[in-house]
Amino acid sequence: ARKVIIDCDPGIDDAVALMVALFDAELDVVAVTSTAGNVPADQAGRNLQGLVERLDPPRRPRIGVGTGPKTAPPVDGTDLNGTDGLANLELVVSSLHQRHPAEKLICDEIRAAPEEVTLVALGPMTNIARALQRDPMIAAQIGRIVIMGGAYNGIGNVTPAAEFNCHFDAMAARTVFKSRTTKTLIPLDVTRQAAFALDLLDQLPNIESSPASQLLHQLIPFVYRSHRQSLGIEGIYLHDAVALAAVLHPEFFEMEEMAGDVETTGEITLGATVFDRREHRAWATNMEVASKIDVPRVQDCVIQGLRAAIRG
Ligand code: BDR
Ligand code: CA
To answer: Region labeled Disordered — which residues (predicted)?
Structure first.
């Protein structure tokens, strides 16, 4: 199985991605780490631990908790995800579970399996930037970083120009973009194309004794309502689950080699991703960016993943 670390800010779409990852036989989720974003750092840590405990996957990942950036713009994801980030479920966490500092755990796991670990970034990139700063040698030892973030065509979500994860800690995003790592970016442009229709739950078995099934029946109806109320759409974006599908099946996406950076000081463009698309490109290529997505295959991949999680 392929080793992965999932860094996230749960968040309902983060939770769905986690479910798929934790029950996928092809993946070995060695660690999960939390960061501030959709909710503050403390809440994100509780949500992550609560999700792992409630889902009780066959292999328990180690859990790392991050502290979040010192300053962040005054935005969060509570309108779409609920005040606690997870449909106001207020998941219970046991005090027994051992929690590690996120950036140290990331460094340790990468050091333990050089070039083998895929780092999946589903939230603001604070922990990953800190790990790279703490131990610069790991850059060459990370197999690949798959990032849900950015807006290739410049149409953001949290602001007109910026995507949430890149906006929340723009400096961190820039640090990761500029690091000497192999990167795949799954931007909003493609995750938005794979919005899930209202019948998502109907496509899944409803097994009351299954923790994943229970959780999905609590999270998904909430997120449908919030998408209708906040965004005026009949359907849901599961950005992070789409990014996870790119970890499992990169062949469902068309990738382009690009040179990308993040705006860190702009008055109205903070966190905007900028790609050198000039005829004579001067910036060096530093990532592949998903430019096309096979929507039915990606949605099917997420649905199959959720079925596996429900079966346990
Ligand atoms: C990203 O921002 C968060 O709100 C979501 O969980 C996702 O990771 C989408 O812009
Ligand atoms: Ca997220």
So the answer is: 56-77
Distance (Å) from CA 276 to ligand 2 centroid:
26
Mean pLDDT (10-residue bins), the chain, 312 residues: 97 98 98 98 97 96 96 93 96 86 98 98 98 98 98 97 98 98 98 95 95 97 97 96 98 98 96 97 98 98 98 94
Active site residue 249: no
pTM: 0.98
Tell how strand 117-121 and strand 2-8 pair up: parallel
Which ligand 1 atom minimizes the distance to the CA of 11? 6
- So what's the ipTM on this one? 0.99
Give the pair of three-digit tokens for residue 152.
Answer: 């290739």
Residue to substitute in 86, 157, 164, 191 for testing ligand 1 pocket (most ligand atoms within 8 angstroms of CB): 164
131-158 per-residue burial string, b: 16 or more CB within 10 A, e: under 16: bbeebeebbebbbbbbbbbbbbeeebbb
Question: How far are the Cα atoms of 62, 106, 127, 190 from residue 132, in angstroms, in the given order?
Answer: 19, 9, 9, 27
Ligand nearest to the CA of 186: 1
